[in-house]
Every structure is written in structure tokens, then in C-alpha cells.
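Researcher: We're teaching a course module on how sequence relates to structure. For the next exercise, students receive a sequence and then see the predicted structure as C-alpha cells, so they can try to spot secondary structure elements on their own. Here is the exercise chain.
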Amino acid sequence: MSETIGWPILTIDPAQRAAGDPGVALIDFPSGVEVVLSGFGMAKGSVITFPDTPQTCRVSAIFFLTGRMELRLGNGAVGRWVPGTACLVRSDTPGFRLVAQDSGWKSHVCVSMACSDLAARFPDGPPEVLLDYLFHPGEVDAIRELMVTRSMSSTAQALQASALGDAFGRSRCEPLALQFLFEALAALLLPDPGGTADTSLALERARSLHDAVSREPTVELLRVLGPDLTLQDQRAALRMFEARYGMSLRSFRHRTIMEIARAELMEGAMIKQLAHDLGYAHLANFTRAYRRAFGESPRQTLRRKARSPSRQGATDGMNSDHLAARGEADHGGLSDG
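Model: And here is the predicted structure for the students to work with:
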């Protein structure tokens, strides 16, 4: 059943964050750059609506951390909120909505700026392609999926950590926000990865892998791509996956498994059964990988959950780059193929 809920804008307060108070944090800098960080739970089918008021044309660079949602712009354009992906949104018209595609915790990082303020930051004027994007005649809402680079992913993670940290950490937010926004704009200028039939097909397969692993992290590669795919085509799909999402399929699989483990433990799941369901043949391997990802054992997470009635974020305390880079070797035999 769909439910329309408000969009809570919260001033960043470390005390509230420590208590696990979910919502959306907004930081508005004098330079005109705006940073929005979210962390909230939603039921499948729930809808977040924004006020239908006229607005200045803005460009937003968004990196999606957890959860799956659908973005619906005022003119009907639709985009996907999928973990580990990024997009640019050019928004002129009111009527923006978010629709939950699954139940659970959602989080993202968004950096936004008015098109006119953004153009003014180029001393010699924006590149022609970017100029057309910023000042397209008429009201045009548009969503453009981006090729996620490792730098873009790392900057988004650093921005989130700084914004939710102490005063010193928050002092780094504005330069990190601008860096992330310009990295996203640079990605906009990259050649279209679907420019040839071969690369277009590899991109389609990479997206299929990403979607399948997001839903079922232990799924086998050939079950998604088909058993008749040549080894050369498999490798092309894996290379495109890393280019598109900024990490290998193996790393993304491991990160997704750890995110699910965290969320399930916060709901009181049984550790041994959870490890088995997530593909770990040995409980010790699961415990070791979990501790590397979150700095505590699964049992400690359960005990902390029992002590606190507040709902903590599924990825609180998790450094995604660290999580993706460590622990795959502990997993019970899962691979990219």
C-alpha cells in the first residue's frame, strides 16, 4: 500500500545521529552548493513527495549508497536508485517523487547547485556540451546515469563521513562537495559507453549483473548471463562492470553481502543461519569478514541492537571502499564466475 510521507530536513546534530535518528540532513553553503545526505527506512511502495512549488533550474550529482528506489521527475522522467550507482539530475519543474522499490534502509549523497552558479565557476565559460546541458531552452527535466569511477565513489564516501563527523570533519564538506559535483560533470563528458554494438551489449550485461547481485548476492554469473556466453564476452562484461560501477563484480558482491548481513542482524537474525543463507560454508569466515567490514563481530551487533530500541542505519560504521577491498577471500567459494 502506497503511503505519502513528508521529507524531514534535519540540521546535522551529532547527538541525534548517535541516537540513530533517521531522516535527511541538509547543508547549504554560501557558495551556492547544497549537500543532502539521507538515511531512512521505508516500506516497499511508499512514496516521498516534494512540494509542488516553482524552483530554480538546478543540477544535482547523486551517489546511491543503500536501498532501491525509483526517481520520478516533474515531467515524467524516471531514474533508478540502485546501490553503488551515480547520476546527474537536471531539474526545472516541480513534482519530484521517490518510490521505494524494496523495504529497508535507504541512503544517498547528493550535491546540488543552481545552473547559473555552476556555470559561473568556469573562468572561460563551461564546455559547449556542458553549456547545452545547463541552459537547454525551455523546461527540461533529465536524468543521466554516469560511469562511476573509483575517485567518484571515494569522494562520495569521504563526503558522507565528513558531513556526519565532528566540526573539523564538516569543515571539509564544501571542497569535497564541489569535487564530487565536478567529477560527475566530467563523467557527463565521457564518450557514450554504448557507442558501438559490442560495448552496448557489454554494458547491458554489466547492468544485468549489478541488478541480479543487488537482489541475490550469491547468484552465479552464468545464471545471469547465460551458460552459452563465451569466455571473451564474460570478461568484456566484467570489465564493463568495473568501468561502470567503479569496482569489480567480486568486490560489489562482497559489499552487498555485508550490507544485507548488517541489515538482517539489526532485525535480530540468527547468525549461523544468516551466514549459511549468504553463502558462507564456515561461520568463522563470515565472522571474520563481518568484523573487517564493521569493526565488530555479528554477536556484538546483536547485543547492541538488543540494548538500543533505535533503528540504526544498515551501513552505520561501514567504510564501503574498505568493505569492498577486504574480506572476499574469507567467503565460502563465491567468485565472479
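Model: If you want an answer key for the exercise: The chain has two domains: 4-188, 197-330. Residues 1-22, 310-335 have pLDDT under 50 and may be disordered.
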